[in-house]
Amino acid sequence: MRASSEMRAVQAVGGQYLILRTIGEGGVAIVYEAEDTLSGKRVALKRLRNEPNVDRRRRAVQLFEREFHTLSQLAHPRIVAAYDYGVDGIEPYYTMEL
């Protein structure tokens, strides 16, 4: 059990979210199921992949931020709720309803 706890702690994002499993992957981001250690809720955490090309990275970050801000403005039963945006190291992420 202890090894499992240590493994999960290493996978913490933003000092608050523990990665539990990968839900899906796309060209620019990976979506995980995560646990919010402050609230105890399960959330989906979308994290931008590392892009070595500076210009493409800058554009990807702009689009990622816009995606979060657009999603956070919407409220509809058929659209997931966006919760939190942050940067862990150099990689931006946001959390949303699972």
Description:
With 98 residues, the protein is an alpha+beta fold. The chain is built from 2 helices and 6 strands. The chain has helices at 2-10, 54-73, and strands spanning 12-13, 17-25, 29-36, 42-48, 82-88, 91-97. It has a 6-stranded antiparallel sheet with strand order 1-2-3-4-6-5. β2 and β3 (29-36) form a beta hairpin. The longest helix has 20 residues, at 54-73.
Distance between the termini: 26 Å
Counted by DSSP, the helix tally is 2
H/E series: HEEEEHEE
Strand content: 35-45%
Mean pLDDT: 88
Radius of gyration: 14 Å
Please state the overall shape, judged from the principal axes of the Cα atoms. Answer: globular
Q: How are strands sequenced across the largest beta sheet? A: 1-2-3-4-6-5
**Largest beta-sheet details:** 6 strands, antiparallel
Show unreliable segments: 1-10
> How many strands in all?
6
Helix content: 25-40%
Structural class: alpha+beta
Oligomer classification: single chain
What are the SSEs and their pairings?
Elements: H1 2-10, E1 12-13, E2 17-25, E3 29-36, E4 42-48, H2 54-73, E5 82-88, E6 91-97
Antiparallel strand pairs: 1-2, 2-3, 3-4, 4-6, 5-6
Task: Please summarize what this structure is.
The protein is an alpha+beta fold and 98 residues long. It has two helices and six strands; from the N terminus they run H-E-E-E-E-H-E-E. Helix content is 30%, strand content 41%.
